UniProtKB/TrEMBL annotation:
NCBIfam families: excise (TIGR01764). Residues 42-91 form the Helix-turn-helix domain. Residues 101-110 have a biased composition (Basic and acidic residues). Transmembrane segments: none annotated. InterPro entries: DNA-bd_dom_put_sf, HTH_17, SinI_DNA-bd. Residues 91-125 are annotated as: Disordered. Keywords: DNA-binding. One of its GO terms (molecular function) is DNA binding. This is DNA-binding protein. It comes from Bacteroides eggerthii.
C-alpha cells in the first residue's frame, strides 16, 4: 500500500467512501435485505395490473374472490409490493385456494343455476 501524504488525504478518503458504498451495495444484493426491515411500497391497482400483465377488471375480480393479497379502506384498494411479490413466488395462491379450485366452484355454480320452466317463459297458460 502506498504511503498517503497529507495533500492526498481528501482524495483518498473520497475514494475509500466510494469503495465502501459499492461494497455495501453488493452485500445488500447478495443478502437480499434479509435481517433489515423491508420497506413496504404501496402499489395502485394500475401498478398491480401492469406488474401481473392483467386488466384492472381482472385484478378487481381477483380481490373479490380473495385470490390476491390486498387491503381495503372504504372504497379504496391498497396493495403492497412485497406482498404481491411473495404471492407470485408462492405460485399465485392466496385466500380461498388456487385457480383450479376456483374454476371447480365456478362450474358447480353454473351447473346449479336455476332456470324458469318453459310454461313461465311464454307468459301464458
Amino acid at each position: 500500500m502506498d504511503n498517503i501524504t497529507f495533500e492526498q488525504l481528501p482524495q483518498a478518503v473520497s475514494m475509500l467512501i466510494e469503495k465502501v458504498g459499492q461494497l455495501a451495495d453488493k452485500v445488500e444484493k447478495v443478502l437480499g435485505n434479509t435481517g433489515q426491515r423491508q420497506e413496504r411500497r404501496l402499489l395502485t391497482l394500475d401498478d398491480v395490473a401492469t406488474l401481473l400483465n392483467k386488466s384492472s377488471s381482472t385484478i378487481y375480480a381477483m380481490t373479490s374472490d380473495k385470490r390476491i393479497p390486498y387491503h381495503k379502506r372504504g372504497n379504496k384498494l391498497y396493495f403492497f409490493e412485497n406482498e404481491i411479490i411473495a404471492w407470485i413466488e408462492q405460485g399465485g395462491t392466496s385466500g380461498t385456494g388456487n385457480e383450479e379450485e376456483f374454476n371447480k366452484r365456478l362450474e358447480a355454480l353454473r351447473g346449479s343455476k336455476r332456470r324458469k320452466p318453459d310454461s313461465l317463459k311464454t307468459g301464458g297458460m
